[in-house]
């Protein structure tokens, strides 16, 4: 199974934020959309970072309420690990585990085409395992 399968099921819409937007705006977008991370895009629509709930919590712990006025760029992760549609779910899980992150933008030819989370990957893995279990059950039942 590949990232393309995940995007086909969940869709490819991505909520983004600009580097100069205040953290308060990022918090609003995360809450409004029920998501855990935002892709940070510059004016040229290039991925320049990613900001997660965890990043915001660290900012609040370090700066208190004044963190809400800080620009997203001050707290975002700048070195963003991305994948492509052809990337396998196993490779995504390996990258996320090694990098200790839970959200990964999907890019093709330098353009953002989606985002996946560890939850998306695990849900697809569980579906595959369930299908295999059912196939084994059916096979054994007919033997």
Automatic annotation (TrEMBL):
Pfam families: CBS. The keyword Ubl conjugation does not apply. It comes from the Bacteria. Residues 8-68, 76-132 form the CBS domain. Keywords: CBS domain. SMART domains: CBS (SM00116). Transmembrane segments: none annotated. PANTHER family: CBS DOMAIN-CONTAINING PROTEIN, CBS DOMAIN-CONTAINING PROTEIN CBSX3, MITOCHONDRIAL. This is Inosine-5-monophosphate dehydrogenase. It comes from Methylobacterium oxalidis.
